[in-house]
Amino acid sequence: MQHNEASQESQTGRALLALRELLLTGQFSPGEHLSELQLVSRLGVSRTPVRQALNRLAHEGLLEAARFNRFRVREFTMRDVWDAIELRGVLEGTAARLAAERLSNTGELDEIRELQTRMDAITHTTVDTFGLYMDLNEAFHAALIGLAKSAMLFRSIEHVKTLPFASPSALVFARSKLPRAAEMIIVGQEQHHAILDAVEHRQGTRAEALAREHALLSRRNLEMALTDERIRDCVPGASLILVGSDR
Amino acid sequence: MQHNEASQESQTGRALLALRELLLTGQFSPGEHLSELQLVSRLGVSRTPVRQALNRLAHEGLLEAARFNRFRVREFTMRDVWDAIELRGVLEGTAARLAAERLSNTGELDEIRELQTRMDAITHTTVDTFGLYMDLNEAFHAALIGLAKSAMLFRSIEHVKTLPFASPSALVFARSKLPRAAEMIIVGQEQHHAILDAVEHRQGTRAEALAREHALLSRRNLEMALTDERIRDCVPGASLILVGSDR
DNA sequence: CGGTTTGAGGATGTATACAGAACGGAGCTG
DNA sequence: CAGCTCCGTTCTGTATACATCCTCAAACCG
Questions:
Q1: What pTM was estimated for this model as a whole?
Q2: What is the CATH number of the domain that holds A23?
Q3: Is residue A61 part of a domain?
Q4: Smallest Cα–Cα separation from A136: which of A185, A92, A184?
């Protein structure tokens, strides 16, 4: 991770983590106004860190600015969720294309190949291997974005991923409970292989299309998780998603 | 604009505008650390608004977080500039594609057609018409993004455009002094027409490719502006761009 | 003379007091 | 009874005091 995320060592970090947790676990209703003073007593820190956390979460997109400098809990539609995932697909597609176009020598692929190999080694999924797979998957995507060699693109993807359900790790808890989770991993692995093949052979357009399609796998996973009542609550921020207007 | 930009009515707004102005006019060196107390005396407001402005500008990308919670003036390479423009092209291309895919009836194009017509009416460029053209151009792009009907995409494009040279309005002062400015407008208008034609006929892929190419026009303009010593300083934030490492 | 320590200065983190604005309800008035 | 006014409550904006930590350089010790 780029941001050290201002961990628990500071009041601001505590306030940020705690408030984000409250939001993602549905402790507030969408559209609700947040009062600094209420949060002071609820989070146990003074107004200064609370303000900073509010601002930060507004940048992340979980809150939105309301009239008279207040903050309101953001409400998402299913369309927002799909659009966020599609947008991530577009950006990761661009990363794959740039990786192909800017590859100087195939040795640059060694690191990501190593991750690939380790993921291939996970043939069946247990509780333990799922966490490992998610970590490797995240590292794989990060490595691909690194190969694009574009600080601007990196920044933009990080921004999109701050939205809870847009991040591929959104399903870290939910996915393991999904039926056909193993099949999803097999399909995902096949796509990873294809993307790397395209990058290695400088096939920018192919790499872009594959990476876009790969993001839609997240969408299918999320779709199943959100429609399954038993595991819907495992998805962070699910309570902020308005169920109606399903496109 | 979405943000009301916290205009001069508040100390925070004043501090933000003033500090951004200082940065964009090259009053600080790239990599320089900014001290809150120094800014207090320089901007004439207390630490609280200064801190808020610093945080905001870090989100915008003009500053970056340094060790021990300090802020450093960001340094950009030419590659960053090109990447930012390419990224804007990718996102506007996505907007054009979505606009084509999601067009429900051609009546939705009335507003943007109106802008188009008004831009066509500007046949030759004087000092007056240039400002008008830039305004219309910005409105045209905003309308196109609106047609994509994606709040997520809108948010992402706004984020990218906070970088001074990534915004199409970066050249509002410089472009009028460029040679062959009239030709650029003609070419740009042709591309606008083609994009609208593609959107109207639901040609998503064509619209996307055209919009990407259209962003490269900004790149050519910026390239000329930055290499011309006489007008380089008209580009906001030019002093933050490292001249070496030209890709 | 080189390395270490220690102190002053200055930086940010945090809490809080005060001021001004918005909101909401009670009471007044037509 | 409806609508308006007014005032208390509560909110945010701002400045600032204090605590803590980093920095840097001078002085000290081996």
A1: 0.91
A2: 1.10.10.10
A3: yes
A4: A185
